[in-house]
Amino acid sequence: MPLPQVVAAWRPDWVLLVLAYWTLALPHRAGILTAFLVGLLLDVLLGATLGVRSLALSVVIYLVALQYQKLRHFAWIQQMGVVAMLSLLSHLLVFWAEYLHSGVQLSWEYLKPVAFTPLLWPWVFWLLRRTRRHYKVK
């Protein structure tokens, strides 16, 4: 069931949150290739230009994979800041690619998820960590 239009603009970037967690938790199992493939699938599901979200997710997850040892030791509030910057980068990369392809214009509506995505990071982190430990995923 689709979200109402008022709430849909604030929809967090769930894919980014989940990929960032798994890259932090298990960098040898989830990384750039996973982000690329998930991005392709997301482009197909959304009917978007093929490769746009693959590029954005690959770049963002590359940065997470590059610094995963540091990021693991950050406090949750610092991790929220990093997630906010990663979400902003992802949305700007998608906007840039869409702008080059079809000339879309940037509006504040487009950046609303950037404000809401980091607020969910502590809960997503806690839930996925609990799930990973319960099922002993290594």
Describe this structure in words.
By secondary structure, the protein is mainly α. The chain has one domain. Helices cover 76% and strands 0% of the residues. The chain is built from 7 helices and no strands. The chain has helices at 5-8, 14-25, 32-46, 52-66, 68-72, 76-102, 108-134. The longest helix is centred in the middle third of the chain and has 27 residues, at 76-102. The N and C termini lie far apart (34 Å). The model has no long low-confidence stretch (mean pLDDT 94).
Portion in beta strands? under 5%
Q: Please trace the helix and strand order, writing H or E for each element.
A: HHHHHHH
What level of helicity do the residues show? over 70%
Structure annotation, total helices: 7
Number of strands: 0
Question: What does the average pLDDT come to?
Answer: 94
Give the C-alpha Rg. 15 Å
Globally, the shape reads globular
What's the N-to-C terminus distance? 34 Å
- Biggest pleated-sheet summary: none
Count of the separate structural domains: 1
Give the helix/strand class.
mainly alpha
Q: For this entry, what is the oligomeric state of its chains?
A: single chain
Poorly predicted runs of 5 or more residues: none
Please render the helix and strand layout as text.
Elements: H1 5-8, H2 14-25, H3 32-46, H4 52-66, H5 68-72, H6 76-102, H7 108-134
Helix pairs in contact: 2-4, 2-7, 3-4, 4-6, 6-7
Keyword list:
7 helices
